[in-house]
Amino acid sequence: MKKYIILTLLITSACFAQKTSLYCIGDSTMANKKDPDKNPEHGWAQVLQPFFNENITVINKAVNGRSTRSFINEKRWDSIYSKLKKGDYVFIEFGHNDQKIEDSTRYTNPHTAYRYNLIRFVKESREKGAIPILLTSISRRNFNEKGVLVPTHGDYPLETRLVAQEYNVPFIDLEYYTELLEQSYGPEKSKQLHLHFKAGENGFYDKDKADDTHLSLLGANKIAEIVINQIKLSKDVSLKNLKNGIK
């Protein structure tokens, strides 16, 4: 009987040992939203867990309105860093709020502060034996009168690409793939990916809503699917455990 108990404990311990945490840090395009059953807005990391099996635990720490600067200054990164362990993963997607040049608590120069904040996330994740993954910001639905999708993120995606290349970080060019997504839906139908409602059309909004940055449930799921597919396609050996955790 003792042998069976010991064997059971060993198997149980092994199962627990296989569990991997996937931390998500970023802004409102990733973040969990309150009252998800009624709220039409969703962050793409909010819908990520169902794509993984029980061996991957998604811990979504993205927060509305945060830039790399404010995420660090509010000690949000410190609280994650203190819990990181070997084999964990960290999705890093910032940029929308780093652009807020009118706000000194959030704005970062893409070529200096933003770049070095990304480098800090990468280096400190690796210090703990965790694997950072850099993602460019999702594209906004910003079609001009000719139906051309116009970029809005300036040099922030470029710096993300450069940091990923320089520091050999697994990378998902989410700006590129979400541009393809927006373009595939087109100027009108792409409203379905975001938050477009007439007053009274949705109980959550009492006025007209036309938000081309944040995501509907459809948009969030489509972007989560993009992320999952890019992980599957990646040849980076450091993503093996994450790939194995996909359903």
UniProtKB/TrEMBL annotation:
SUPFAM superfamilies: SGNH hydrolase. Residues 1-19 form the signal peptide. It comes from Flavobacterium nitrogenifigens. Residues 24-218 form the SGNH hydrolase-type esterase domain. Belongs to the 'GDSL' lipolytic enzyme family. Keywords: Hydrolase, Signal. This is Lysophospholipase L1. GO terms for molecular function: hydrolase activity, acting on ester bonds. Gene3D superfamilies: SGNH hydrolase. It holds the Pfam family Lipase_GDSL_2.
